[in-house]
From TrEMBL:
Originating organism: Inhella proteolytica
Keyword Secreted: no
Protein name (Swiss-Prot/TrEMBL): DUF1624 domain-containing protein
Transmembrane segments: 51-72, 84-104, 116-134, 141-159, 194-211, 218-236, 248-268, 280-302, 327-347
Keywords, alphabetical: Membrane, Transmembrane, Transmembrane helix
Coiled coil: none
Alphabetized InterPro entries for the sequence: HGSNAT_cat
One Pfam short name: HGSNAT_cat
Domain Heparan-alpha-glucosaminide N-acetyltransferase catalytic residues, every copy: 7-148
């Protein structure tokens, strides 16, 4: 096996496609009229939208392997743990800052503490720490412990929206600062809550293991891992042992989405890196944080100034009347993504890359 470059266009492309998909599903013109595949599953089950975040976290693990794998193999780990934790903290703080901006400008009742970037920062730091301190067997043991331990907690504590350990912890820990909070009942839930981050950490570690296979040029191993993980997750769900659930980030969800992400990565690696296909999404991928944070800020500013709905009505009101509200809402989201595609392409052409 021949080791591949630490920078792969396929990885940048898949990361970028995930970011573009995040912008698409997060910015419809009208939240009351969205095509069902562009919404998250209400609870158990999945839609294509439910794949976006786990695919991104999987790529976080893959990118860690490509960036740090060879250095760890050589034993060059001095100062590496501090570097990993500082970057994880910066990502987390950026997420909090974006939520604070939304809280301030959009007059939200409370500052939401958990979030997408907060979970990414936490998983980045924890996964980085584990792969620095443990080799392959230990990493697989951690993945198994996370899936089995978290799965046991869920099975023992309930899997319904009203009764599950993840929501109970969210309510106790975050209260009104969670995504959902009912003061009268004391119930709360956050799709990026703390306990469910155990499953998200397992996703990131599986990304690392698949990234190691990719780094070593072991495409067959990557394909086998992808197929095995996806089948295992599907079987847990189909057999009634553990439902696929993005809100709880269940072990079946971890396995199913990581497997599909691995198969997608293998296909892109074969096509983009080996056969020269165009790396669609690469410009988003090399400026992922800038695109996500910039899109968030632009949306919050438009909403905070009261300009979002007038802009939507002026630009897409005719389409709403001609083709229906769902088509107009999707067209706005596509236009939003297109604007940011132009921005990140311009940044890439000028070799401007924002990192945290």
């Amino acid at each position: 096996m021949n080791a591949v470059s630490s920078r792969l266009a396929s990885v940048d492309a898949l990361r970028g496609l995930c970011v573009a998909a995040m912008l698409l599903v997060n910015n419809p013109g009208d939240w009351g009229h969205v095509y069902a595949p562009l919404l998250h599953a209400a609870w158990h089950g999945w839609t294509p939208t439910d794949f976006v975040f786990p695919f991104f976290l999987f790529i976080v693990g893959v990118s860690l392997a490509l960036a740090l794998g060879a250095r760890i193999e050589r034993g060059q780990t001095a100062g590496l743990l501090r570097t990993v934790w500082l970057r994880g903290l910066r990502i987390l703080l950026l997420g909090l800052a974006l939520h604070a901006l939304a809280w301030w400008l959009m007059d939200k009742p409370a500052l939401r503490l958990p979030g997408v970037l907060q979970r990414i920062g936490l998983c980045f730091a924890l996964a980085g720490s584990l792969v620095i301190g443990w080799r392959a067997r230990g990493q697989w043991a951690w993945i198994a412990a996370l899936l089995l331990g978290y799965g046991a907690l869920l099975l023992g504590g309930g899997l319904t929206p009203e009764h599950n350990p993840a929501s109970r912890l969210d309510a106790w820990l975050f209260g009104p600062h969670a995504y959902q909070w009912d003061a009268a009942s004391g119930r709360g839930h956050d799709p990026e809550g703390l306990l469910a981050s155990l499953g998200a950490l397992a996703t990131t570690l599986l990304g690392w293991r698949c990234g190691e296979a990719l780094r070593q040029g072991a495409l067959r191993t990557l394909l086998a891992l992808g197929a095995g993980l996806a089948l295992a997750g599907w079987a847990l769900d189909a057999g009634g042992l553990m439902p696929i659930n993005k809100n709880l980030w269940t072990p079946s969800f971890v396995l199913f989405t990581a497997g599909l992400a691995a198969l997608t990565l293998a296909a892109l690696h074969q096509g983009v890196d080996r056969q020269g296909w165009p790396p669609l999404g690469r410009a988003f991928g090399v400026n992922a944080i800038a695109a996500y944070a910039g899109a968030w800020v632009s949306t919050v500013l438009l909403e905070g100034m009261g300009a979002m709905q007038p802009l939507y009505a002026a630009g897409f009101g005719w389409l709403q009347r001609a083709a229906g509200p769902e088509a107009a809402s999707l067209s706005f989201a596509l236009a939003f993504v297109a604007v940011w595609a132009l921005i990140v392409r311009g940044l890439d052409q000028r070799r401007i890359y924002f990192k945290v």
